[in-house]
From TrEMBL:
UniProt name for this protein: Heat-inducible transcription repressor HrcA
UniProt keyword list: Repressor, Stress response, Transcription, Transcription regulation
One Pfam family cited in the UniProt record for this chain: WHD_HrcA
Family, similarity comment: Belongs to the HrcA family.
Source domain of life: Bacteria
Lineage per the UniProt record: Bacteria, Pseudomonadati, Pseudomonadota, Gammaproteobacteria, Alteromonadales
Gene that specifies this protein: hrcA
HAMAP family (UniProt xref): HrcA
InterPro entries: GAF-like_dom_sf (IPR029016), HrcA (IPR002571), HrcA_C (IPR021153), WH-like_DNA-bd_sf (IPR036388), WH_DNA-bd_sf (IPR036390), WHTH_HrcA_DNA-bd (IPR005104), WHTH_transcript_rep_HrcA_IDD (IPR023120)
Described purpose of this protein according to its UniProt entry: Negative regulator of class I heat shock genes (grpE-dnaK-dnaJ and groELS operons). Prevents heat-shock induction of these operons.
Organism of provenance: Catenovulum sediminis
Length: 343
């Protein structure tokens, strides 16, 4: 019997078993399921159904106990077909969400969002800061500190401001600096930082003063620095110590090492940006062995209608998906709203 052909009684048994397992965390017996009023079957009948579900790869027996627990496939079927997500409006009025109903720079809003996710779910919260490769520049300003020293100020469309002191090989007059600033704003404003640099490079070939400032302000080192590097906000790592994830010290230590490797998490979250709405990875579906006992619930967020980042919760495969999914969804919506109102 293929999964799609499971009858209503088998699906009802699976639903009750997964819900019980998520709440209690230990193998579930046929007697326990048979006691549910809407099952209307004896313990022997339920036992046979559970054996069928096990053959289908939806349940497994962790040891010699008669009880069963869901496999990743069983959890996936529950999440995709059986689960009823808790009322979205239960969460929209939570006072904690007020943290995201403010005007603030993108990095600050992302930090607030990661802390909010961790607080509301009691799992680890992750938020990528909007990729500067995708965010347009609003304004460029150069403040003359000395004859050969300038403060470059880059205002991004998401509200973030980048500052950098640059040294020039030779002095520049204020009037000339104003002309170059106006020219650079014409080149950069409305374009991404990378697009602006590309256009500026072509333009600067015929202007020595412009070339001098552009090379000092936007050299390759700067391109790899705070202006463009991907950033990740993390909160609630301590929740990964939960025994629901692992009781083995070595596994916990390895999990913390994986979380500390921000590139690993960034790569995972970037892959989530290619999907609309909430996406769920359970256990081995993450593609990372260290996360085999974890689940990841993620969602992208937008600026000017474009996906510029994503956020996620990582916790036990036994998380309350019915609660976590709407919280992740609501947080991504509010972060999107806050970013678009903070620009």
């Amino acid at each position: 019997m293929a999964n799609k052909q499971l009858n209503d009684k088998a699906l009802k048994v699976l639903n009750h078993l997964v819900e019980y397992y998520l709440n209690e965390g230990h193998p579930v017996s046929s007697k326990c399921i048979a006691q549910q009023k809407d099952v209307s079957a004896s313990a022997a009948t339920v036992r046979n159904i559970m054996m069928t579900l096990e053959r289908e790869g939806l349940l497994k027996s962790p040891h010699t106990s008669a009880g069963r627990i869901p496999t990743v496939s069983g959890l996936r079927l529950f999440v995709d077909k059986l689960m009823t997500v808790k009322n979205f409006h239960q969460h929209i009025e939570l006072p904690q969400f007020e943290q995201l109903r403010v005007k603030a720079p993108a990095s600050e809003l992302c930090q607030k969002a990661s802390m909010l996710l961790a607080d509301l779910t009691q799992f680890a919260g992750f938020v990528t800061v909007p990729e500067k490769r995708k965010v347009t520049v609003d304004k460029l300003e150069f403040i003359q500190l000395t004859a050969q020293k300038l403060l470059a100020v880059i205002v991004m469309h998401d509200g973030d401001v980048q500052n950098r002191v640059i040294e020039l090989p030779q002095a520049i007059e204020q009037g000339q600096l104003q002309k170059i600033t106006s020219l650079m704003n014409m080149v950069f404003c409305g374009n991404s930082f990378i697009e602006g640099c590309r256009k500026l490079k072509a333009l600067a070939e015929s202007d020595k003063a412009l070339l001098c400032i552009s090379e000092a302000a936007f050299d390759e080192k700067t391109m790899r620095s705070d202006v463009l590097q991907d950033k990740l906000m993390i909160a609630g790592q301590n929740h990964l110590l939960s025994e629901n994830i692992s009781q083995e010290l070595n596994k916990i230590r390895a999990l913390f090492d994986a979380i500390s490797n921000k590139k690993l998490i960034l790569d995972m979250l970037k892959s989530c940006q290619r999907s609309d709405g909430v996406k769920i990875f359970i256990g081995e579906e993450t593609g990372i062995e260290l996360f085999s006992d974890c689940a990841l619930v993620s969602a992208p967020y937008h600026l000017d209608g474009k996906v510029v980042g994503s956020l996620a919760v990582i916790g036990s495969t036994r998380m309350d998906y019915r609660k976590v999914i709407p919280i992740v969804d609501m947080t991504s919506r509010l972060l999107t709203s806050a970013l678009n109102h903070s620009k």
